[in-house]
Structure formats: structure tokens, C-alpha cells
Design a protein that fits this description.
This protein has helices spanning 6-11, 48-51, 64-72, 92-106, 120-128, 143-149, 154-167, 184-196, 222-236, 259-265, 302-311, and strands at residues 2-4, 25-30, 53-54, 57-58, 61-62, 81-86, 111-114, 133-135, 139-140, 172-178, 200-205, 246-248, 251-254. The chain is of the alpha/beta class and 322 residues long. Bound molecules: iron/sulfur cluster.
């Protein structure tokens, strides 16, 4: 058996459910019980209902053969990538290698993997098995928050990610969750470091989930999230450099660009769409349909683009006038 996100199951025709938006990536989840106890994640609760959830998404279980059959024709349903995510468990790597073999035999769609690995040798084994991209999640941006929320050393995870980025150039991704106690300076500074190492960043907004330790914590302010999205977009497209960014009390106050320049660079709205591996749109991972959208899984309307750009000016941020 293998778990699929509810949206993936609907997209592959495994349920009769109609969705408001379909994923462009098929999201699969390996492993039953996570050894980690991250304070934001329902997996840490350990009860059966919680084990069916990762983030705010539910992950029903399906028969492997049925999933393989559906994946063989997934491209015709708009699927551009498969993402095999794994919770951390004892024999995780062996299980993952066997699952990768099955997926590679079923389809030629590029495969991403997001898993807890011990070292670069395990990354090499996963790449050798046919993985196209791999994510080592950092999640918590502030090192102290990392220790408190995830446990252990952020530096060790970062060192492994950066080592893998050197060994497997332009093949590594990471997940960063905005809203776990970091400042805008800390977020953009870490994004700059990872971007310079050619690590692709999937930005998430923290979502408080009922029953978790952080159930009463607030999601990030939307204006702050937009500034971080725009900052990452400017850096990855070489439209601005981090050393020109200006901060006041660790809040971003300028990208070092004129207001009119910034409006042109951001005018496609792409800065505010889901970031991460190519084809990964993660519909409603951070938000409920009809509520505030942090990561747009689709192109934005003109009104949405204008709203997103005007939100940058919240807080201390004051774009330079022409
Ligand atoms: S960015 Fe998307 S496809 Fe890539 S590892 Fe993360 S969830 Fe998977």
C-alpha cells in the first residue's frame, strides 16, 4: 500500500471527488509512523487519524499496483512530476529504493524525492536509482526555532544539504516554512545562501493544525510572506542581489530597486506562485479554498498581481521612489 495526497488520488481518477484545483505533480507518501516529533505536524501526535495527515493534507492509502497503473497514464491527466515524500522511519532508505524501482518501471515522468537521509551516500544511492531531484527539508529558518520545533541541529542538516548541492549540482531542493519565529532578514539571508548554492527552495507558509503543539500559533502576515516570495524571485532571476537589500530591525525596507523597476519585474505574478521543483504546484497546501492564498497554484489574475505587489508595502517596507 502507498499513500497519495487526496488531490493526487482525485487527479489520477482513484476517487470520484471533483477538486477545485488539480496538482501538476503526483504526491506520494512513504512510511507509516514518523520518528520525528515536529511541533507543527500532525504526524507527531501518533494517533491513527493523525497518521493519515501530513501538513494540512490528508493522505488516503491505495494499492500499489493500482497506483502504478494510474501513473502509467498520468501525463495525459496533466501530471508533470512525481514527488515521493517520506516520513522518517527506521528502514526508510531501503523501502524508498524499492519504491523508486517500482515507480521507474511504471513511468518515465521525472521523480523528486523528499526524505530524511543520514548522509551524502544515501543521496547518491537515491540518485543512482533514478531520482531526478531531491529535497532535504530545513523547514524552520531560525536555528533556535529549529531546535525547539524539530529537535536537533539545523547546522547539521544545512551542512548535508550544501554538501549534496556540491556533489549533485542543480539537483537539490529544500522546504522552508515561513512563520516559525524567524525575521525577514533571517529568511532572506538563508534563501540567498541556498540560492547561491543552486538549491531550489519550496516556500511554505506555516499553517496551525488542530491538535499539534503549535495549534494556537499564528500563520505569517501575508505582507511579510509576499516580501519574502518577491525577494526569492528577484534573487533566483538575478534581478536584484541580496547585498543591495536593506533592513530595519531585521524587517525588509528595500530591495535596492526603484518602485517602477520592481513593478515591471514582478508584473507576471510568477513571484507569488508556488516555488519548488519544476511542475510542483501543491494546490491548497497552505490555505483552504476560498481563503487567503499564500502560494498561487495557478497564474494570477491582473487584480491578484496588483494586490500582491501593493501588499509588499505593508509593515516597514517602503519601495524606493523613482
Ligand atoms: S518542491 Fe514539490 S516536488 Fe519538490 S520535493 Fe518539495 S513537494 Fe516534492
Amino acid at each position: 500500500m502507498i499513500r497519495l495526497s487526496a488531490g493526487t488520488a482525485a487527479c489520477l481518477g482513484l476517487t470520484g471527488s471533483r477538486m477545485d484545483a488539480y496538482p501538476k505533480t503526483a504526491y506520494l507518501l512513504s512510511g507509516k509512523r514518523c520518528m520525528m516529533k515536529c511541533s507543527f505536524c500532525p504526524q507527531g501526535l501518533g494517533d491513527n487519524e493523525a497518521l493519515n495527515r501530513l501538513g494540512r493534507i490528508s493522505w488516503p492509502e491505495y494499492d500499489w499496483t493500482e497506483v502504478e497503473n494510474r501513473l502509467a497514464e498520468a501525463e495525459s491527466r496533466g501530471i508533470q512530476r512525481i514527488c515521493l515524500q517520506s516520513v522518517r522511519y527506521e528502514d526508510g532508505i531501503e523501502t524508498l529504493l524499492a519504491q523508486i524501482n517500482r515507480l521507474k518501471a511504471a513511468t518515465k515522468i521525472p521523480l523528486s524525492i523528499s526524505a530524511w537521509i543520514r548522509d551524502e551516500n544515501e543521496a547518491a544511492a537515491l540518485f543512482a536509482a533514478g531520482v531526478e531531484r531531491m529535497s532535504i527539508s530545513i523547514d524552520a529558518i531560525n536555528p533556535e526555532a529549529f531546535r525547539e520545533i524539530k529537535g536537533g541541529s539545523q547546522q547539521k542538516r544545512l551542512d548535508l544539504l550544501l554538501k549534496c548541492a556540491e556533489l549533485f549540482p542543480a539537483k537539490m531542493s529544500t522546504h522552508l516554512i515561513v512563520g516559525l519565529g524567524e525575521t525577514e532578514y533571517e529568511a532572506l539571508s538563508l534563501i540567498n545562501k541556498l540560492n547561491q548554492a543552486s538549491v531550489t527552495i519550496a516556500l511554505f507558509a506555516f499553517v496551525p493544525i488542530r491538535g499539534t503543539k503549535l495549534e494556537n500559533a499564528e500563520p505569517p502576515a501575508l505582507d511579510s510572506y509576499r516580501r519574502i516570495q518577491a525577494g526569492y524571485y528577484l534573487m533566483r532571476n538575478k534581478a536584484a542581489v541580496f547585498s543591495d537589500f536593506k533592513f530595519k530591525n531585521e524587517d525588509l525596507i528595500s530591495y535596492g530597486l526603484k518602485k517602477s523597476q520592481l513593478a515591471i519585474i514582478l508584473s507576471s505574478g510568477e513571484a507569488f506562485t508556488t516555488s519548488g521543483c519544476p511542475g510542483c504546484n501543491r494546490p491548497y497546501y497552505n490555505e483552504r479554498p476560498g481563503r487567503t492564498i499564500y502560494n498561487y497554484h495557478r497564474n494570477l489574475s491582473l487584480t491578484e498581481i496588483e494586490e500582491a505587489i501593493s501588499l509588499l508595502s505593508g509593515g516597514s517596507y517602503s519601495p524606493m521612489e523613482d
